[in-house]
Amino acid sequence: MSENNLQVLLRRRPAGEPVAEDFEVVETPVPVPGAGEVLIRARFLSLDPYMRGRMSDAKSYAKPVELGGVMEGLSVGEVVASNHPDFAPGDTVMGGSGWQRFCVVEAAKLRKVDCNEAPLSANLGVLGMPGLTAWVGLEDIGEPKPGETVVISAASGAVGQVAGQIAKARGARVIGIAGGAKKCAFVVRELGFDACLDHRGDLNAQLDAACPEGIDVYWENVGGHVQEAVFPRLRDFGRMVMCGMIAQYNQAPGADAAGAPPGPNLGPVVRKRLRIQGFIVSDKGWQRYPQFRAVMLGLMKSGQLVWKEDVVQGLRKAPEAFIGLLKGQNFGKLVIAID
Ligand code: NDP
Question: How distant, in Å, are the alpha carbons of 10, 183, 186, 261, 322 from that of 332?
Answer without folding.
Answer: 25, 9, 10, 24, 13
